[in-house]
């Protein structure tokens, strides 16, 4: 994919992704994590005719030129699931690699299409989202950001335990918080084991 008038050294994504049109990061990292409505609606920030630069791109629609991979390497694979593309974008952004949204591109992505088969599988994927978010904050945020995210996840843990009576889900939230604070990556729970 090339864009007329744009160098072939940036990462591209689609603007119009069903269920994911708020996943374009435009604000500073702290505002993204903790504001009530962190993503400005895409119709307000994207020009309908021209590509738009953003801070990070969701992995469900990510096009990376081989020249970028050859020069800067690829994403970390030890995250296993979730947020490895955000970490990659932040690392590349610090090195001057642009992230572009291509407004004329279209892609369909069913939100949680592969993880909504069972409540246990959803708990496993939530483990990776929470754990990797905490690791990512540790890499790109501050200690204050880490503790604030931890408190937010503690509230989720209590809600899951007290109101949903989901002991398995609450236990995985606890493991995610522990592993995230310890920056423990890799596979702890195999999603295939929870498909039934």
Q: Can you walk me through this structure?
A:
The chain has 196 residues and is mainly alpha-helical. The chain contains seven helices and three strands; from the N terminus they run βααβααβααα. Strands 1-3-2 form a three-stranded mixed β-sheet, with no helix packed on it. About 16% of the residues have low confidence.
Please tally the helical runs, counting DSSP H or I stretches of 4 or more residues. Answer: 7
> Radius of gyration from the CA trace?
18 Å
Spatially, the strands of the biggest sheet line up as 1-3-2
What integer is the average pLDDT? 77
Number of strands: 3
Class based on secondary structure composition and strand pairing: mainly alpha
Distance between the termini: 39 Å
Which of globular, elongated, flat, extended, rod-shaped describes the shape?
globular
**What are the secondary-structure elements, in order, as H or E?**
EHHEHHEHHH
Portion of residues in beta strands equals 5-15%
Low-confidence stretches: 15-45
Q: Characterize the main sheet.
A: 3 strands, mixed
Helix content: 40-55%
